[in-house]
Every structure is written in C-alpha cells, then in structure tokens.
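User: Please fill in residues for this 479-position structure.
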C-alpha cells in the first residue's frame, strides 16, 4: 500500500500552494480592512501607543485565520482543478488510466490535516487571543469613557443600561441631552433617567465608571398592590445632581495576570465550556427536583383543626348559629369541616399557597430558561470549533469536481463560484447560531447543517466525476 504521494500527486499539491497562499493573504487583508473600518474611530484621537494598536490587531487576527483558511481552500481547489481541466491534462490522465479520485485524494488528505490544525488552533490559541483582544478593548474604553458613545445613536456597551445622547463634546467627555434606560434586574426596577448634561469619568482603579448628571429627572417603575392585584405605578423624581456608578470589575483589564479575568463562551476552550454546561445541567436537574419535592405550597392546613376526629358537617343539629352551617362542596377536604368559616379559611389558605407555588414555579421556569439558553450558547461554540475546520474537507469535496466541470482555472471564475457557496455557508452558520441561541433549533443542527448539505453535494459530484454513475440514470431507470 502506497503511503507517500507520487510525482503526479505532489504536482497537484504544488499547484494548490500558490492559489491558497494568495487567497489566504487576500482574505486576511480584506478582513483586516473590515476590522479597521469598524473600529478606526475607536483608535483615532486616543493617544494610544503604537504597540497597543498593533497588539489589538494581532490578537484579532486569530479569529480571522479561522474564517480565511476554509475560504482559501475552496478558491484554491476551484483554481487548481479548473486549470488542470482547462489545459486538457485531466483528459490525458484519464486516457492513461488515472482516476480523478487519485488526483483529489492528496488534496483531501491535506485538508484533513489542515482541519486538525484548525481544531487545535480554535481550541488552544483562539480563546486566549479573544480574551486579550476583549481586554484591550475594555482598556481603551476606560482610557476615555465617552469614547464609544455616538451622537443620536443607542449605546448598550454597559450591561443593563441603554444610552441615548444628543450631543457629545469629545475633548471633555461632556454629554448633552442625555436619556438613559435602566433595565430591570433582580435587584432593581426599571427606570428612565433624563438630564440636560453630564460627564463620564473613570476611577483610578480602572474598574469603576461614574456618570455625573445635572438638571434632570428619574422616572421609576414601582409595584403596588390594589385590591389584591399587582399594578404598575410610576414615580418621577427631579434632581439637580445625580451620579451613577457602573461596576466594571468583571471586565477590568489586567495585562499582568489575564487568567484572573472573567471569560465568556468566545474566550473559553472546549474543556472549560463542557464543564460549565455540565454545571448548568446539574442546576436545572436540582431545580426540577426542588419543584417535585417542595410540598409546603401544596398541602394547606388549619392550625386549630383537629384532624384526628371524623366530623360530619350536616349532622350537628344543636348548632345555634345557622349562618355558620357548612356548605356542600365537591372537594372532599372541605366536606370534613364543621363550619362555613373553617371551610372559607381552608379555601383562602389553599388559594394563597397555590398562588405562592405558581410564583415559585414561574421563577424556577425563568431561571431554567436562562440556563438552557446559556447551555445552547456554549454548545454552539463547541460545535463551531469543529464544524468550521471540517469545512476545509467539505470545500475540497466541493471545489475539486466543480473546478473540473467548469474547465476554468482563472481567479475570476473561482472567486465568482466561491462567493456563491461561501455566502450560503456563512449565512447558514450565522443564522444557525442565532436560531440555536434562541432554542429554535439544536446547536448541532445550527452549526452542522451547512457542512452536511455542501458535503453531500460534494460527495455526489466526486462520485459523478470519478465513476460512470450519473444521477440522471436514477430518473431514467424509474421511467
């Protein structure tokens, strides 16, 4: 069994190197330009050292590599195999008894090795690079707090707050005509804050951001009970000066010890995310058992009720107070009580406990829903670390036969065809991630559907070009 490639296969591999390197560098340049266009306004006027800017660019290059490599593989396959067919070399090889699968196999093996490399890169290198890039962004933001705010645009860079500022004086970080929406959390109600002007300041510790507001009002939402029903009440308070402090300790930049900073799904490896998923699932299971085992809401009791005696409510003829005669109820528990007052008390207690139990279940349901969404987010990232590298294999299966069929090896045809398939692939990945995060589909489906579809198409095309089998024979035979 021959393990090393022959001269023909080595020649095929060499023809891929040039287009792959060219496409990879071009795509990296385009992705880098896109990054700079998006964040150039964040880097100008900050007085940042050149080394910090270069470090920010380098750390963001890691995520670009994961995207650019599969795209370069597809375009390189289209160009290399298209050039082979264009020069009639494929016809000569077939005449010499060489099957096209022998030409594709060394490129396919190289794609497998490249996929393994990308899996390692995505799991071991990319999370740390994303964490460094995230820390640098936060460090830049704290250097000049009003930096991310833009005039007449909603800003949600700080958790649980939405900002809208009409005018910003960049030199002094002064804000004019400020509107802030404070999102409701477990610790506070929602509120609407308006002020004529204000300013943002960063504390020396770099972990606290303080907003000073002047001449405004706060509209708070309060809960009030009226006739046993919970209603919404709004309270407005005027102020001359108002201060809000934002705790950024979880996101505080510490270049000396980055391991101490918190991480999210984009900055964790597979092992860490799997551990978080297991922990969340255990919490969900504990909550489920808590609902099943929590009986204190279900069984109402009367403290002065003697449950050891069996009482017949309708047989006591010595009762003087006829207004307290128990009424007949279809509920067995109420039939064993001797007075209407006891029945009413038990009814009220049972209703109160059921309402408390309903509130208890609703709280656990919301917590469970949040945990399920977090699990989905982590699973999406885990599957993504495999599905995108596997795309290298898929794109070889797809690009090789299509290049042979087109018989065009120039960059124009390869770029045009590659754009069609890459657009489909990345739209599927992006939309699949969004739908999986919202629990509409499973994380596996969201991340693998495009690989499966394009992989099947590629396999069919490879079989079609390497064997006498044709799909049209299936329809002809059925007729």
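Assistant: Residues filled in for all 479 positions:
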């Amino acid at each position: 069994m021959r393990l090393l490639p022959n001269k023909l296969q080595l020649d095929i591999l060499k023809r891929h190197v040039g287009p792959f390197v060219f496409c990879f560098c071009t795509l990296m340049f385009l992705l880098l330009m896109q990054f700079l266009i998006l964040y150039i306004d964040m880097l100008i006027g900050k007085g940042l050292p050149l080394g910090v800017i270069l470090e920010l660019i380098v750390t963001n290059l890691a995520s670009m590599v994961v995207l650019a490599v599969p795209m370069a593989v597809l375009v390189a396959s289209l160009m290399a195999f298209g050039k082979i067919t264009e020069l009639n070399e494929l016809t000569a090889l077939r005449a010499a008894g060489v099957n096209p699968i022998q030409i594709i196999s060394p490129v396919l093996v190289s794609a497998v090795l490249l996929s393994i490399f990308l899996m390692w890169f995505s799991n071991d290198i990319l999370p740390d690079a994303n964490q460094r890039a995230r820390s640098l962004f936060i460090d830049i933001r704290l250097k000049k707090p009003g930096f991310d705010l833009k005039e007449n645009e909603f800003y949600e860079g700080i958790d649980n707050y939405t900002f809208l500022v009409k005018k910003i004086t960049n030199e002094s970080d002064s804000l004019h005509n400020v509107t802030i929406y404070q999102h409701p959390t477990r610790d506070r109600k929602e509120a609407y804050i308006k002020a004529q002007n204000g300013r943002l300041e960063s504390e020396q510790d770099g972990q606290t951001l303080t907003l000073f507001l002047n001449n405004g009002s706060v509209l708070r939402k309060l809960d009030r009970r009226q006739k046993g029903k919970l209603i919404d009440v709004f309270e407005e308070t005027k102020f001359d000066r108002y201060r809000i402090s934002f705790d950024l300790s979880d996101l505080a930049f510490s270049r000396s010890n980055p391991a101490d900073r918190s991480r999210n799904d984009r900055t964790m490896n597979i092992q860490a995310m799997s551990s978080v998923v297991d922990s969340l699932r255990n919490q969900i299971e504990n909550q489920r058992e808590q609902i099943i085992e929590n009986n204190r809401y279900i069984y109402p009791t009367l403290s002065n009720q003697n449950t050891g005696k069996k009482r017949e409510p309708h047989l006591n003829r010595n009762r003087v107070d006829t207004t307290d005669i128990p009424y007949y109820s279809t509920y067995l528990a109420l039939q064993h009580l001797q007075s209407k007052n006891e029945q009413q008390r038990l009814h009220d207690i049972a209703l109160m406990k059921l309402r408390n139990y309903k509130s208890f279940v609703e709280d656990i349901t919301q917590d469970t829903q949040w945990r399920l969404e977090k699990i989905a987010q982590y699973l999406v990232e885990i599957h993504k670390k495999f599905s995108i590298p596997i795309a290298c294999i898929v794109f070889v299966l797809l690009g090789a036969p299509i290049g042979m069929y087109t018989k065009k090896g120039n960059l124009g045809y390869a770029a045009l065809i590659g754009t069609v398939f890459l657009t489909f692939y990345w739209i599927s990945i992006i939309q699949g991630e969004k739908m999986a995060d919202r629990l509409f589909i499973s994380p596996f489906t969201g991340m693998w559907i495009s690989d499966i579809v394009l992989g099947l198409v590629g396999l069919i095309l490879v079989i079609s070009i390497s064997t006498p089998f044709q799909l049209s024979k299936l329809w002809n035979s059925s007729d």
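For context: The chain has a mean pLDDT of 79.
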